Amino acid sequence: MGTVELLVYRVREISNRPPIRSAAWECERRVQYENEALMLQYWGLLGGRELAVYDTQRRIFRVLRYNYLTLQYLVQWVGHAVDDAVWVSQAEMLKCTSWPLLQTQTCPTTEHIATKGY
Length: 118
Hints:
Structural class: alpha+beta
Number of helices: 4
Order of helices and strands: EEHHHEEEHE
Radius of gyration: 16 Å
Number of strands: 6
Largest sheet: 3 strands, antiparallel
Strand order of the largest sheet: 2-1-6
Distance between the termini: 6 Å
């Protein structure tokens, strides 16, 4: 199964001008990176990510810690809060090929999101 994309509606406020509105499909990881609280609130309203999206493959959002003694990583999954982070082995980590480095970019505020699954 592919990645989950969300339809993101943005509003950019420019002083003394009408707001600029746009909409685009964006990767779930990117939306969570830009506004994690809104992303988690959205999935919460739908009863959780697993109920809203029939995607059994978890994707790594970020690595929080590494244990050198046990060779395990504490990972936060895409669509999940930090409190749901779990330790995974180095072997499991290597199987998760879908966690590219995220680049910081200045983006307008995320106003509304709707799901589209692949």
